[in-house]
Design a protein that fits this description.
6-stranded mixed beta sheet, DENN/MADD domain containing 6B, alpha/beta, Tripartite_DENN, guanyl-nucleotide exchange factor activity, 19 helices, 17 strands
Length: 564
């Protein structure tokens, strides 16, 4: 997993780790997209055995468990925590994370694994089956892009093996870095994927490191991260409101599905259902008994954690009996022209391994379900409306619902910001007013979600429950940090515009030295994080140099020794 070992990591038949290094000291472009590429082979005697903790997680998560019965080619995703002690990479003032929506930013505490697993009969193998997974490991949540990439490279790899993988890694190392707002041409194995690294495809000229006349006609990917929401939720359309509220509130939730493909897609769909709000709890699209957090997440000595877990092993039915919300799904079935809908059932009925599909919960929604949406989607099925159109309808509904919920919070949060005229160069930046739940509730009568949403119900009750959730805490911390940076930017600009030289004329040398030290510290620590108008920082640096040069030589030496 260490990028210094090169981009490709293999696991061989004897269970030993085999890693290739490259003569180049850096794979900077490769690492802006992927952490590494792994090949996991099932070992008959040792299973998926390997020594390092992160690689152990990858090995176990890269294979469907024996209950899934996956023959042929299978694709799914997983997510795992980076090992304790590993230092998260410092991407510095990274243009991508600065400008990307919070739901698409790099995950500095976890890795995503995108798997292409092949299991076919092979009489030459002791088990009677060829079993191997090709895994792309990344900090980016680009589920659609990376699974499309695997569809291109995995079949070739299984035929040609290592030389093919080396060539792919070198091609990826020639890709431009992901930058929000740019449409990128990404060549790989004779194909060019054209992608936009923002939620909506941009229409500006595609960027590539290679001359355009050397590239084949591109394959356009309309999204890098979105799933087929309609396919994911088709058997629970009438209970969409339940799933959205459970996700919004960060409730403990288990998704039991017949395959890792279904479990991972549904977990990722749930997390994306509250966009543009970021899901701030942990979530595991595919979770196994070998996961390093298995004991932590299945203990009965404390309340279930605020996580979403996707599982396929029936053993988990007994393990998670104490959890408040469990979604049990089977293979999609039709009831006439429509997909058979699961029912909401009491948790007490979740006892046996052959438990029927259903949503097992005692949760009652705060808001009424949108019957117009459900009728529209069901009618679309009868009319054989394309799945991508159904997904677009569903995604738009969820987006508008989440925005209706979050806009009053954003409006109230903005009111806590001090007025710009209260920011002066001679005082520290003013404080942001504290968030008052009751004060916010009082605003809902005139500026609540009823202005943008037709859904009826107990919105105030939903907000009160939301205030106790990890998603509120994450949203509030992010907004407060952004507002603090905005205040510091305004203060820095005010300082840049002030007549600092004139201010120093009637001040003591100690006060002047103190001013210079504080301004230097602000310039060093803040300018990389803050957004100020062009030229303002240069102007302030010149002013500080002028003030310092006017001091006696012994004090200039003191300043020199204390340069940050």
């Amino acid at each position: 997993m260490d990028p210094s070992h090169g981009p490709a990591s293999h696991h061989n038949e004897t269970g030993n780790a085999v890693e290739r290094t490259d003569s180049r000291s850096t794979w900077a472009q490769f690492l802006s997209w992927l952490e590494c590429v792994c090949v996991v082979t099932f070992d008959l005697e040792l299973g998926q055995a390997i020594e390092v903790t992160e690689k152990t997680s990858i090995c176990y998560l890269s294979f469907p468990d024996s209950y899934s019965g996956c023959l042929g080619d299978t694709q799914f995703s997983f997510r795992f925590r980076q090992s304790i002690g590993r230092i998260s990479p410092d991407f510095g003032e990274d243009a991508y994370d600065r400008d990307a929506p919070v739901t698409l930013q790099r995950d500095l505490g976890h890795f995503y694994g995108y798997v292409y697993f092949r299991q076919v009969k092979d009489v030459s193998v002791k088990r009677g089956y060829f079993q191997k997974s090709l895994v792309l490991v990344s900090r980016l949540p680009y589920v659609h892009l990376f699974h499309t990439l695997l569809q291109i490279i995995a079949p070739e790899y299984f035929e040609k093996l290592e030389p093919c993988l080396e060539a792919v890694c070198n091609e990826i190392d020639q890709w431009p870095s992901p930058v929000p707002g740019l449409t990128l041409n990404l060549p790989v194995m004779g194909t060019v994927l054209q992608v936009g690294t923002t939620p909506q495809m941009t229409v500006n000229k595609p960027f590539s490191f290679l001359p355009q006349h050397l590239l084949p006609a591109p394959t356009l990917l309309p999204t890098i991260h979105e799933l087929d929401l309609f396919k994911c939720f088709q058997s629970a359309l009438i209970h969409l409101q339940v799933l959205w509220e459970l996700t919004l509130l960060g409730e403990p939730l288990v998704v039991m599905a017949p395959s890792p493909t279904m479990s991972s897609e549904i977990v990722l769909a749930l997390v994306s259902s509250i966009a543009p709000l970021k899901y701030c709890s942990d979530y595991r699209p595919y979770f196994t008994i070998h996961d390093s957090e298995f004991r932590e997440y299945t203990t009965r000595t404390q309340a279930p954690p605020n996580v979403i877990l996707g599982v396929t092993n029936p053993f988990f039915i007994k393990t998670f009996q104490s959890w408040p919300h469990i979604v049990r799904l089977g293979d999609p079935r039709m009831a006439g022209d429509l997909p058979k809908q699961v029912k909401v059932k009491k948790l007490a009925k979740l006892k046996t391994l052959d438990t029927k599909p259903g949503i097992y919960t005692a949760y009652k929604t705060f808001l009424q379900k949108d019957k117009v949406l459900i009728k529209r989607l069901l009618k679309g099925i009868q009319r054989k409306r394309p799945s991508e159109v159904q997904s677009a309808i569903l995604r738009r509904h969820l987006l508008e619902l989440t925005q209706s919920f979050i806009i009053p919070l954003e409006r109230y949060m903005a009111s806590l910001m001090p007025l710009q005229r209260s920011v002066t160069p001679w005082k520290t930046p003013p404080q942001i007013r504290p968030f008052s739940q009751e004060e916010f509730m009082a605003t809902l009568e005139h500026a609540g979600p009823h202005l943008t949403s037709m859904l009826k119900g107990d919105w105030m009750g939903l907000y009160r429950r939301f205030f106790r959730s990890p998603n509120f805490d994450g949203w509030y911390r992010l907004r407060r940090r952004e507002m603090t940076q905005k205040l510091e930017s305004l203060h820095l600009e005010a300082v840049c515009d002030a007549d600092l030289v004139g201010w120093t004329k009637d001040k003591s040398e100690v006060e002047v030295v103190d001013l210079v030290l504080k301004l230097r510290e602000k310039l060093v620590r803040k300018t990389g994080q803050l957004s100020v108008r062009e030229g303002a920082v240069d102007q302030l640096e010149g002013c500080v140099q002028t003030i310092a040069a006017a001091l006696p030589e012994d004090l200039q030496n003191v300043l020199h020794r204390h340069r940050p």
